Amino acid sequence: MTDSYKNILDELKLLVKSLSVLKTRIRGFRQNIGKEKDKVEIAKIRKSLDLS
């Protein structure tokens, strides 16, 4: 396996891990709908996606 393929695999692993964390946060956010913590959760998600 060449270095470029190894780098691509490492990037994919990081992406999958990031998506998994994001999915968990969204699931937690859905369970907390209507609570004051929503604003904090939205801020965390935006920060993790660099949208803010």
How would you explain this protein's 3D organization?
There is one protein chain. The protein has helices at residues 3-31, 37-49. The chain is an all-alpha fold and 52 residues long. It has a domain at 20-52. The longest helix is centred in the first third of the chain and has 29 residues, at 3-31.
SSE string, helices as H and strands as E: HH
Please give the share of residues in helix.
Answer: over 70%
**What spatial form do the alpha-carbon principal axes imply?**
elongated
- Figure out the total of helices: 2
Class inferred from helices and paired strands: mainly alpha
What's the topology here?
Blueprint: H1 3-31, H2 37-49
Helix pairs in contact: 1-2
In short:
Helices cover 81% and strands 0% of the residues. With 52 residues, the protein is mostly helical. The chain has a domain at 20-52.
Question: Which labels suit this protein?
Answer:
52 residues, mainly alpha, 2 helices
